[in-house]
Write a structure and sequence with these properties.
Blueprint (H helix, E strand, L loop, with lengths): L3 H10 L28 E2 L15 H13 L1 H21 L5 E17 L2 E20 L4 H67 L5 H35 L9 H4 L11 E2 L3 H7 L1 H22 L4 E12 L2 H4 L5 E10 L5 H69 L5 H36 L10
Parallel strand pairs: 1-4
Antiparallel strand pairs: 2-3, 3-5, 5-6
Helix pairs in contact: 2-4, 3-4, 4-5, 4-8, 4-11, 5-11, 8-10, 10-11
Amino acid sequence: MIRPALLTAALLLSGCALGPNFHAAPTPPSANAGFVSATPSVASGTPTPDAWWRLYNDPVLDDLIAQAFAANTDLRVAQANLRKARAVLSESRAARLPTTSISGSAVEQRSQVTTVNGAVPFRSEYYQLGLDASYEIDLYGRVGRSIEAARADAAAQAAARDTAAISVAAETTRAYADACSSARQLAVAERSLKLQTDSFDLTERRVAAGRDSPLDAARARSQLESTRASLPGFAANRRSALFRLAVLTGKPPTEADPRAAACTAPPQLSEPIPAGDGAALLKRRPDIRQADRTLAAATARIGVAIADLYPKISLGGSLSAQGITPGAAFSNQGFGFSIGPLISWSFPNIFAARARIKQAKAGADAALASFDGTVLTALKETETALSDYAGMIDRNKALRAARDQSTEAARIVRIRYAAGSENFLAVLDAERTLATADATLADSDAALTTAQIAVFKALGGGWEAINRP
């Protein structure tokens, strides 16, 4: 029988965990400063809003992202993985509770017993009911560290779900913007085609009147067909974007949203991007949080491995009732009990336990390196996205000015051609330049929106808007 003093000491020692305690890994001091790629188009001192897509003031986009958060398949997978991790945590916590089992039996035996008078039939009955219980004394913190690791794993899965939400929001916005941009590029190409068709018709009439040569008509026809050849590509890009958008919102590709199909201009911001600073970025990005929790889980598992070096101690007890009749089983004579320590120790195989400790420490080192890499990657992605966005803005401004000048030049050339001061080759050249400028500007507007979305994705916002079970 265990002495009360020993039992008390064991319970007091229960939960003294072995192994290192987790401490958050340090981040580069420079990461807490502002972004070096910040420009007047970026408001560094303003925190990034949770639902950043609302800055576009587009109700259709808001509704599409809400649909994606509710039905996107990748996000559903992430939600299921989170539920699984939480169930594993519940299982780990159950190790704190005693384990019990109940058994019962009622046996009737009939046989022939040989006596001096011959074989005599024999009949006997036996009844038994038992209750066994055991409780592991977490003397070296194995159970506690296991719970700690499972809790960190669940938090890491929650961060993975948030990372998936960021991707869903960004990709939905990008698909919607691509559909709108392709529609605009198609409209620009169709407008250029209309102008070139009119010019070609005019050229044919002038050739018939002897005022222009057939070479002018051939050049006009070549330019016309080149523009016509670009239309199928823009139409295909638009359909592809609508298909992507439908799948992102959990629908078949054929069920594209008609509101997105009717969009003819990509969404644009009317204010600088609120980017915050490096410190806010590190707190907000869920992939950094996931790496931190993965490191915490790996650190806790070192303690689990170390605890395997020592014996596992449990308190076990049992109650039993047995007898040849039910009444006898539950009488004083049929009742019995036992209580005492249960010790198991894999001492002969201690080398395997030490190998597992080395594995756990190596896993923690890898998790620390992964955390450092995740922090550096987050900073790199943000700086790169901000730099690309700044370059896109400058390029877009220059292209817009070039398009305006090309429009004015084409207008002047047409006037001079009508007055007989220019030949038709100058008109074709001016129209070709204007068509190219319009198409290039439309491409730049699409790229500018894509760059904005890349900035928001790098800043790590959007996961706060999902429903959190």
